[in-house]
Amino acid sequence: KIPMTTDGTNKPTRETSVSELTLLDDAMALYLFVLPKGIVKLMPILNALVENRNRDCKRIRILTYMFKIHDWEPILVDKTAKGGCPIYYYEFGGSSS
Fold first, then answer.
1. Residue 46 phi/psi, 5° resolution?
2. Phi and psi (nearest 5°) for 90?
3. Which of 32, 33, 50, 96 could form a cystine bridge with 64, CB 3.0-4.6 A?
4. At 64, is the secondary structure helix, strand, or coil?
5. Residue 95 predicted with pLDDT over 80
6. 86, 76 contact by CB (below 8 A)
7. Contacts of 82 (CB under 8 A, 6+ apart)
8. What one-character DSSP code corresponds to residue 95?
């Protein structure tokens, strides 16, 4: 078991095993390295994740490499990587939605 924080502090508030973690409740960031066709297939999951995070006021950061999520507006596009391939940065929930 590993300590998990649920109140935004560094103090453990409960013990959780890794097998109990879920994408919808526990992920803090996602890095998507997929083609546009894959992003389209993931959109129902991503939209549910964002909806849950906005409702619960929990932040989630999503980054995509090379391909934009066309339904969303990135808050940052970083083109400083080698070759100029963009990284799109999205943030939802918390106080930044």
1. -65, -40
2. -125, 145
3. 32
4. strand
5. no
6. no
7. none
8. T
Collapsed DSSP state (helix, strand, coil) of residue 90: strand
Question: Model confidence over 30-39: pLDDT tens digits?
Answer: 999 999 999 9
Question: Which of the 8 DSSP states describes residue 18?
Answer: G
CA distances from 89 to 64, 76, 77, 92 (A): 7, 5, 6, 10
Q: Is residue 61 classed as helix, strand or coil in its secondary structure?
A: strand
Phi-psi group of 84: left, alpha or beta (phi > 0 → left; psi -120 to 50 → alpha; rest → beta): left
Cβ atoms of 61 and 31 within 8 Å: the answer is no
Tokens of 97: 């939605």
Euclidean distance between CA atoms 53 and 58, whole angstroms: 5
The pTM assigned to this predicted structure is 0.74
CA distance linking residue 84 with residue 43, whole number of Å: 26
At a CB cut-off of 8 Å and minimum separation 6, what does 21 contact? none
